[in-house]
Write a structure and sequence with these properties.
Shape: elongated
Strand content: over 45%
Largest sheet: 8 strands, antiparallel, barrel
Strand order of the largest sheet: 1-2-3-4-5-7-8-9
Radius of gyration: 18 Å
Mean pLDDT: 85
CATH architecture: Beta Barrel
CATH class: Mainly Beta
CATH topology: Porin
Distance between the termini: 25 Å
Helix content: under 10%
Number of domains: 1
Length: 195
C-alpha cells in the first residue's frame, strides 16, 4: 500500500505533462457506517448508526494544461460504526484519484482507496479478533470547491472488502459482508509547489 503511494508520487514527479505539482495537507470530518450485505434481518442493521470521526494527512496533486489532473494522498482515517457500543476502526489510507476541473471553482474526483487497518477497538477494549480484515479496498468519489488557495471538499468512500473476514452465510448462500461507508468533509491547504 505504501509502495503504491510512493510509486504514484514518483510517477507524478517524472511526468513532463504536469504543469503544476503541489504538496499539501488535508483534514476533516468522517461520518462512517458499516453496511451489511447478503443478510436480510431487519432487526440487525438499524442498530448500526453513523459514527463521527476524522481524517488527516498529506496529498500531492498534479495538474496539466487540460482539465484533467491526479491526486495521491496518505491519510489517517477513523472509520467504524455505532453498534454494540462504538466500534473504532483506525486506518492508514491511500486514495489515488483522477481529478477533472469542471470550471475555475469546482473539480470532481474519483478513484480507488486502499486502507490498512492499524487497530480496532471499542469501549470494551481491543476488537481486532472480530474486525480482522487488515486491508480495505474501496472507491472514492467527490467534489471540491476552490476558495483561493484553500479547497473545501466532500467525498464518499464505498468499501468493497468485508471488514470481518470470517462470517456466516446469509439466506441466499453467500457470505455476509460488512462494508465500510464513509462520507468526508475536508479542508485542503497547499504547502508548496514541487515544480
Amino acid at each position: 500500500m505504501i509502495r503504491s503511494g510512493l510509486l504514484c508520487f514518483f510517477v507524478l514527479l517524472s511526468c513532463p505533462a504536469w504543469t503544476q505539482v503541489m504538496l499539501g495537507v488535508r483534514s476533516g470530518l468522517n461520518l462512517s457506517d458499516v453496511v451489511i450485505n447478503n443478510y436480510n434481518d431487519p432487526d440487525v442493521e438499524p442498530g448500526y448508526d453513523i459514527k463521527p470521526g476524522f481524517h488527516a494527512g498529506v496529498f500531492v496533486t498534479a495538474d496539466g494544461e487540460s482539465k484533467i489532473g491526479f491526486s495521491a494522498e496518505l491519510l489517517y482515517s477513523s472509520k467504524g460504526v455505532r453498534a454494540l457500543n462504538v466500534i473504532n476502526l483506525h486506518y492508514v489510507a491511500v486514495p489515488l484519484l483522477l481529478r477533472y476541473h469542471l470550471n475555475d471553482k469546482f473539480l470532481a474526483e474519483i478513484g480507488p482507496e486502499i486502507g490498512y487497518l492499524v487497530s480496532a477497538n471499542s469501549k470494551h477494549g481491543n476488537v481486532n479478533s472480530t474486525w480482522d480484515n487488515k486491508v480495505d479496498v474501496g472507491l472514492d468519489a467527490g467534489l471540491q470547491y476552490l476558495l483561493g488557495k484553500i479547497t473545501i471538499g466532500a467525498r464518499f468512500n464505498a468499501g468493497f472488502t468485508s471488514v470481518i473476514r470470517t462470517t456466516a452465510s446469509g439466506p441466499n448462500g453467500q457470505r455476509v459482508r460488512y462494508l465500510n461507508r464513509v462520507a468526508q468533509l475536508s479542508i485542503a491547504i497547499p504547502l508548496r509547489e514541487l515544480y
